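Q: Can someone sanity-check these two? First one:
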Amino acid sequence: MRHSSQQALLAEGEARVAKEEIIMAKISVIIPIYNTSAYLKRCMDSVLMQTHTDLEIILINDGSTDQSPELCDQYALADQRVRVIHQANGGLSAARNAGMAIATGEYLGFVDSDDWIEPDTYEYLLELLTANQADIAEARHEVAYSINHQMSEVAEVVEVFEGDAILIRYFEHNEFGVWLRLYKREIFTDVLFDVGRINEDVVAGYLALRNADRLVTSNQPKVYYFSNPVGISESPLRKRDMDLLFAGERLDELTADCGNERLRKLALTKKHRSPFTLLVKMTLFGCSTELDIKQTKRELQAEVRRHYGFLMASHMPLNRKILLTGCVICYPLVRLAGAAYLAIMRARAR
């Protein structure tokens, strides 16, 4: 009986030590900032109030022309955990790379400056990493149209992936934002974001996950992804959006000799799906004057038609396949339906 009690005490002590190690682990949180002064307080409040307090918060002012530079400096003066880099505008990739170059934490987290996170996000992800001896922990996000967004309450489901299953899950889950995950710092030792391109998460995220032996995921929503009408995600289709096609090509190259047929097919699906994704963006948000609207639509539709059969046979949700078919057969109707959908979602957010 005494032996059992000693074992229980030993186990409790080990658990306590492990918990203390989690608490002491430093996380470098990298936040690129470009003209988002209207949203920066909301973002920073959510990071500064994390239940895990051992943070190094790196703000990269990427050539902002609004009040963002002054706000960054104010945060650095108010909290010693905040570090600020001011640099000429180089884009999101250059900003993230600059942040990683000076990061000293054992773990890396990424937050976009118009998004925000739940108060226990990093405590939760660290506990997932430690409990599952993983290299990367991932939570879920929800699209938020306002600060009043209420996260869904769902029963926790935690899954662990290893080897090629990590990359297969990456493609099948179709969530490419690096801000969903907490990484051991060494995962990014040989990974940089492609400078001068958007959709940089897609390739960098793949390379980071390829470096991992184990990924742990949770269905708990922790990130508020702000649907910003002047941000990248909800702006009209522009020339730089075509970088998604480049990302598809890179994933094709990276998996060309992977030896896993399922992984290879998923990478090809991502490549062939990219023109469809751009066409949907054009359908929902229009096309900027940088592009010839008719020519762009014609070229994207031609690519979608070319790989229509492949995509319809792929691992893609039914609602996406219906949308895919609509974009090919009756584009104007899809555009009307998209406008109605956005109006409903924004009305709900008010």
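And here is the second, same format, sequence then tokens:
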Amino acid sequence: MNANAQRSWPVLADAVIPVSEGTKRLARDVALIIGGCLFTALLAQVKIPLGFTPVPITGQTFAVLLVGASLGSWRGGSAMLLYLVAGSWLPFYAGGASGFAWSIASGGYIVGFIPAAFAVGWLSERGWDRKPRILLAMLAGNVILYVPGLLWLSTFAPAETRWATTLEWGFYPFIIGDAIKLVAASLLLPGAWEVVNLVRGRNQ
């Protein structure tokens, strides 16, 4: 097996806020997880309702991909788990909504944010966030969050046209928007690394 596939690289958060001591590192990681949750909640307020589907266009998926890539696997996944739990009581979901995720049509996507952020973070820890193939990592994360999203959304669709309606509600309208988010996120990460490396070079 390729040794590089097993190697864990520092992700962007580790490079921007390098901490090695136990207590300080724990405090940093907790702050990053909370920050990732709040960032997702902030972009969730960017909401564009579509009259023909209960699932709106939001900035959540863009946030999920960025949080996973910049925080890494376990912190990215933990930030999304915190987002899921916090949104049960706080107005963190799209448009300021709150409540148990499974009670809303888009709840499956929110659950899917957790493995999606983890997967993108895991690939970033293998150096994918520094190269053009970050686009593939982002695409993988997007596919992962769609699985529980569409499965849960299908329970809200009419039984006689369940899967056709589910795809019309939760997949087809978002292809172009998701492609734009993927490209934007995949440009931001390598660009951010260029800035970090430039600053490091000046400080050496």
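A (reply): Looked at the second one. DSSP finds nine helices and two strands in the chain. The two ends are 35 Å apart (CA to CA).
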